[in-house]
């Protein structure tokens, strides 16, 4: 840049356009400063927004669950009582209850208002990797090392079904917006009917182990995060593979569709968070700043922010609007530097 300025061959605006065209997204993202939340004393393994976007839950290897104010990043409450690291957290639909699942033995529900434990569901001594409320809040689904997904009726606290399939260890479960379908991911991925647990479709066999899956709200698309760092996009109705997105240099740990389904987030053991355009598979932004593996990511319910958490014990809140604006400027700059027709 200094040499260009000394020679006065290019204007400052031209230099910026050239840099936008030449530099990778990571270089541009490094200038973005997220809101960084501190509090956990060990790796942060999972995060979740409340439905209204005002609160955030996080779980950690420090065996605590924290409730945060999403606007300020302030800790509102700390839930203690699990004897092993936290593997999953979730809010109930009405936001009054917080769900947490530990690696072994326990799934618990907490009162958000008081911080007191409300209900416990037995983990049967297995490693629990995922737990979610259904969108209507009436069911709880959890899975882990016993190679099954179990479903409870929240009102009665009774287990109502247990599903077994080709998915092996259950790493993740995601619901369609209407709650009629669930995507279950592990060694394989299956779309199941919540009504009876029947197989609807199986995704074309992943060739790598999966750490997370997500289902678009309309249940049209499924996205998986692989140990090889790739993301795979599927037609959730037919199970056909649509695209493979590559960018992460190490295992992809978590994926999340935006509320409108046009964007996707991914976190990785390469310490980065990436934002993707779903229609094209184009990498829009690479956010850097975490100093350890990124374990979890999530869109805010309004789609305006991205939350990430990881092994540096922090949560980071990123501005989606700023990322999209940078991307538009970068694309425009790249287009402006293309050579014109020969005279």
What keywords describe this structure?
343 residues, mainly beta, Methylamine Dehydrogenase, Chain H, 7-stranded antiparallel beta sheet, 4-stranded antiparallel beta sheet, 11% helix, globular
Structure description:
With about 350 residues, the chain is mainly beta. The chain has a single domain (about 35-320), classed as Methylamine Dehydrogenase, Chain H, CATH 2.130.10. Helix content is about 10%, strand content about 45%. The chain is built from four helices and 27 strands. The chain has helices at about 1-5, 10-20, 25-30, 320-335; strands at about 35, 45-50, 55-60, 65-70, 75-80, 85-90, 95-100, 105-110, 115-135, 140-145, 150-155, 160-165, 170-175, 180-185, 190-195, 200, 210-215, 220-225, 230-235, 240-245, 250-255, 265-270, 275, 285, 295-300, 305-310, 315-320. The strands form six sheets. Strands 6-7-8-9-10-11-12 form a seven-stranded antiparallel sheet, with no helix packed on it. A four-stranded antiparallel sheet has the order 1-27-26-25. Strands 2-3-4-5 form a four-stranded antiparallel sheet, with no helix packed on it. The longest helix is centred in the last third of the chain and has 17 residues, at about 320-335. The protein is globular, with a radius of gyration of 21 Å. The model is unreliable at about 1-30 (pLDDT under 50).
């Amino acid at each position: 840049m200094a040499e260009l300025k000394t020679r006065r061959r290019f204007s400052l605006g031209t230099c910026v356009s050239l840099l936008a065209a030449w530099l990778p997204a990571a270089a541009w993202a490094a200038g973005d400063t997220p809101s960084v939340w501190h509090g956990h004393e060990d790796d942060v393994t999972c995060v979740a927004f409340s439905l209204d976007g005002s609160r955030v839950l996080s779980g950690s290897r420090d065996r605590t669950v924290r409730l945060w104010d999403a606007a300020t990043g302030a800790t509102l409450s700390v839930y203690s009582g699990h004897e092993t690291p936290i593997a999953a957290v979730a809010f109930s639909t009405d936001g009054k209850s917080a769900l947490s699942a530990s690696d072994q033995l326990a799934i618990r529900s907490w009162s958000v208002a008081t911080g007191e434990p409300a209900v416990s569901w037995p983990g049967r001594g297995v490693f629990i990797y995922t737990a979610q409320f259904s969108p209507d809040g009436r069911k709880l689904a959890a899975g882990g090392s016993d190679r099954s997904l179990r479903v409870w009726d929240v009102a009665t606290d009774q287990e109502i079904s247990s599903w077994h399939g080709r998915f092996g260890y259950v790493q993740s479960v995601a619901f369609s917006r209407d709650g009629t379908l669930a995507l279950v991911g592990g060694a394989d991925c299956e779309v199941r009917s919540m009504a009876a647990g029947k197989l609807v479709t199986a995704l074309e066999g992943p060739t790598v182990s999966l750490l997370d899956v997500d289902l678009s709200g309309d249940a049209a698309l499924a996205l998986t995060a692989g140990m090889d760092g790739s993301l795979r996009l599927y037609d959730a109705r037919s199970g056909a593979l649509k695209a493979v997105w590559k960018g992460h240099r190490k295992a992809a740990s978590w994926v999340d569709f935006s509320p409108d389904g046009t964007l996707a987030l991914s976190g990785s053991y390469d310490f980065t968070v990436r934002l993707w355009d779903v229609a094209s598979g184009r990498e829009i932004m690479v956010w850097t700043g975490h100093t350890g593996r990124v374990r979890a990511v999530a869109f805010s319910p309004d789609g305006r922010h991205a939350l990430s958490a990881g092994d540096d014990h922090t949560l980071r809140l990123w501005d989606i609007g700023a990322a999209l604006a940078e991307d538009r400027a970068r694309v425009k700059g790249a287009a402006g530097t293309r050579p014109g027709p020969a005279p």
